[in-house]
Write a structure and sequence with these properties.
This protein has ten helices and nine strands. It is α+β, with helices and mostly antiparallel strands and 262 residues long. The strands form three sheets. It has a four-stranded antiparallel beta sheet. Helix 3 runs antiparallel to helix 10. The two termini are 39 Å apart.
């Protein structure tokens, strides 16, 4: 997380008149918030450069916590599951988790480097006893991927349901023997493949008869990938904050003086 504070503004503040000093809390909070917004813009632009086909979820993963007249600091970080309003501001308490996978789970390794965090499907398959610790999921070589290089969510749900791999909390989504489920045919189409030791190593799809009619849709790779640091989050943020804060303070003070109550 990057925190923008009113450091480096001592000279600008020393030149203020008494009238301007009355507007100082408003102007400072406004300058900090606008600086944080520019920081987020610069980081988002860098994501488009360093990531291969970043998804909208990645590009929209930043949130901004605005400064106030009571708290002179603004923050920029990755959405971590807490409630965030339409302006990108955190509105829930820390630890008040929202729905969906938090963007921080896949972006923090890109910021700090290190092993990739488990995806939701990997956590589920571990609970199911299909995926061992240290293994992770990769698409089969002939799997159709979306524009961002991922398995489409609908396709993935169909595979997991057909192979009966949803855990108890998602049990109703698994293929069953009902007439409607049999009509879809997913229960016969998808299944878990095992090696000679009866260890699961992939999920396959039946596309025809015999071995030639099988294709691997999900493979269980044996080593968790490690990421090198890709996104210079803090370096970009610090550089942008130092450049923008004095300018934003001057603009904010001008706005405060123009809109003050006379």
């Amino acid at each position: 997380m990057i925190t923008v504070k009113p450091t480096g503004l001592e000279q600008a503040m020393a030149r203020l008149t008494d009238l301007e000093r009355n507007q100082l809390p408003f102007a400072t909070a406004l300058a900090l918030t606008r600086t944080a917004q520019v920081v987020a813009e610069d980081i988002r632009a860098e994501m488009g450069v360093v990531f291969d086909r970043p998804t909208p979820a990645t590009l929209n993963s930043l949130y901004i916590q605005s400064a106030t007249k009571q708290k002179f600091e603004a923050r920029v970080w990755i959405k971590d599951g807490r409630s965030v309003n339409g302006k990108g501001n955190v509105v829930g308490r820390e630890g008040s988790w929202g729905k969906g996978r938090a963007a921080s789970t896949w972006l923090t390794p890109e910021i700090y480097g290190g092993p990739r965090n488990d995806k939701g499907i990997e956590k589920m398959l571990r609970r199911k006893g299909v995926l061992k610790q240290g293994q992770y999921i990769v698409p089969g070589s002939r799997m159709e991927l979306d524009a961002y290089g991922n398995i489409p969510k609908g396709t993935l749900n169909k595979i997991i349901s057909g192979a009966s791999l949803f855990t108890e909390e998602g049990y109703s989504a698994n293929a069953t023997g009902s007439k409607r489920s049999r009509a879809k045919g997913n229960a016969k189409r998808y299944f878990v493949m095992h090696n000679a030791k009866r260890e699961p190593f992939a999920v396959a799809e039946r596309t025809g008869n015999g071995r030639s009619g099988l294709r691997v849709v999900l493979a269980f790779a044996g080593r968790t990938p490690r990421y090198r640091k890709t996104l210079n989050f803090f370096e970009i943020a610090e550089r942008t904050a130092q450049r923008e804060l004095p300018r934003q303070f001057e603009l904010a003070m001008a706005q405060a003086m123009a809109t003050r109550r006379r």
